[in-house]
């Protein structure tokens, strides 16, 4: 101990400096801890306060000489009345990347066809209608793919894509241009198994339940789409919802935010699995919760919750072809007319051809879009989601649009 005391005396200034540094580090940590945002949702009742908007992203510049076509499999006005705004927003004339939009009319409903004619008439230079000789189905969709023109990039869009993030189409096409060996670049799609499983695990989904009783009055307006506009769900804390339970008896029922985040384990999305069939594909209640979570994330400027930086490679797993980018030559070189008769276009484009050609199918994490409904998710039609998405489009995305009512 004798040699330590002189050392301590000689180096006392050093000891003081070290102690001061440790104190400042600890104080900084405590201050940072106290100012971290809480895990609770940022709105109370019907009021939104204290939201911090992310800085705008620098828009991607479309390369010269690149032609990008929208390729819409059209069928239903009730869906396309929302999607139409996003296509117009993405036209090159409006600063987007779409040089044209091809509408493959795959319906015989006169009202739906009249609405398509209205769309074409609104911009006949950019919008083109394609009418197949006969309605297309799973094993005849190849006839639509035969119509592609070499040298063009195509963004295939199902008619029930109800929302498209502003950078989604540029990000899809940019990935395909930069990595031409990718056979398909899929969007990061809400309600597209198995992506819902990923969205749940990375924190993009929130607890919601259907309202427990029919409201006596609902006021519609431009902000109708916002979850905060409708308040919290009111019910017992031990409540759970069977994913097979049918929708409430009244039409266009709402799903409401559950205030306690920990109750998410009692909600339908707790049953999500990494699968392309099963309940993750069929359960309307799981899909409903994903849609209402998206609306919350849009309202709270929290879309980064869905995004991932590196592409997700499917490695032979199926991904739905609701919203994706392909290069025309890649498809035409496979001679779609002679695709196997027992294989649908999705089977060929994301499974068989990539396997044969040894080329990847990737999901672009920052190309967000929302797909409304699969065949077995009929209960979604009993929610107010179509109204919500239409209100969202009119409020945030339609060019020169005013609220026209729901």
CATH architecture of the largest domain: Alpha-Beta Complex
Share of residues in helices? 25-40%
SSE order, as H and E? HHEEEHEHEHEEHEHEEHHEEHHEH
Q: Which fold name fills CATH's third level, the topology of the largest domain?
A: Spore Coat Polysaccharide Biosynthesis Protein SpsA, Chain A
Q: Label the overall shape.
A: globular
Main sheet specs: 9 strands, mixed
**Total number of domains:** 2
Radius of gyration: 25 Å
| Secondary structure tally: strands | 13
Please state the average pLDDT score.
Answer: 88
**First-to-last CA distance:** 85 Å
Uncertain spans, ≥5 residues at pLDDT below 50? 1-11, 24-57
| Tally of contiguous helical segments | 12
Backbone structural class: alpha/beta
Query: Percent of residues in beta strands?
Result: 15-25%
Task: Describe what this molecule looks like in 3D.
The chain contains 12 helices and 13 strands. The chain has 406 residues and is α/β, with parallel strands linked by helices. The chain folds into 2 domains: 193 residues, Alpha-Beta Complex (Spore Coat Polysaccharide Biosynthesis Protein SpsA, Chain A); 97 residues, no CATH class. Helix 3 runs parallel beside helix 12. The radius of gyration is 25 Å and the shape is globular. It starts with a helix and ends in a 9-residue tail after the last helix.
């Amino acid at each position: 101990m004798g040699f330590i005391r002189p050392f301590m005396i000689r180096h006392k200034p050093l000891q003081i400096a070290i102690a001061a540094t440790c104190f400042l580090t600890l104080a900084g940590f405590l201050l940072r801890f106290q100012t971290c945002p809480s895990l609770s949702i940022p709105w109370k009742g019907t009021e939104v306060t204290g939201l911090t908007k992310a800085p705008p992203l620098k828009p991607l510049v479309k390369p010269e000489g690149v032609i990008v076509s929208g390729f819409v499999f059209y069928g239903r006005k009730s869906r396309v009345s929302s999607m139409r705004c996003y296509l117009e927003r993405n036209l090159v004339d409006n600063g987007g990347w779409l040089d044209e939009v091809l509408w493959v009319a795959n319906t015989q409903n006169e009202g739906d066809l009249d609405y398509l004619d209205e769309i074409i008439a609104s911009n006949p230079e950019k919008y083109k209608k394609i009418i197949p000789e006969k309605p297309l189905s799973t094993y005849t969709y190849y006839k639509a793919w035969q119509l592609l023109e070499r040298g063009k990039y195509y963004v295939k869009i199902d008619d029930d894509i109800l929302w498209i993030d502003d950078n989604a189409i540029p990000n899809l096409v940019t990935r395909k241009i930069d990595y031409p060996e990718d056979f398909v670049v899929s969007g990061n799609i809400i309600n597209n198994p198995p992506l819902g499983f990923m969205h749940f695990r990375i924190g993009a989904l929130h607890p919601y339940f259907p309202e427990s009783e029919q409201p006596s009055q609902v006021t519609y307006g431009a902000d109708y789409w916002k979850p905060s506009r409708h308040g919290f769900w009111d019910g017992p804390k031990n409540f759970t919802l069977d994913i097979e339970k049918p929708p409430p008896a009244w039409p266009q029922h709402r799903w409401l935010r559950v205030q306690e985040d920990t109750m998410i384990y009692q909600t339908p999305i707790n049953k999500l699995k990494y699968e392309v069939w099963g309940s993750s594909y069929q359960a309307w209640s799981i899909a409903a919760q994903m849609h209402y979570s998206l609306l919350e994330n849009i309202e709270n400027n929290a879309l980064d919750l869905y995004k991932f930086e590196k592409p997700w490679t499917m490695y032979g797993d199926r991904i739905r072809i609701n919203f994706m980018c392909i290069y025309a030559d890649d498809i035409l070189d496979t001679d779609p007319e002679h695709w196997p008769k027992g294989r649908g276009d999705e089977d060929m484009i994301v499974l068989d051809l990539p396997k044969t050609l040894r080329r990847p199918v990737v999901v672009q994490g920052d190309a967000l879009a929302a797909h409304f409904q699969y065949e077995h998710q009929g209960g979604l039609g009993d929610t107010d989601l179509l109204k919500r998405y239409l209100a969202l489009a009119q409020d945030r995305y339609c060019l020169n649009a005013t609220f026209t009512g729901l």
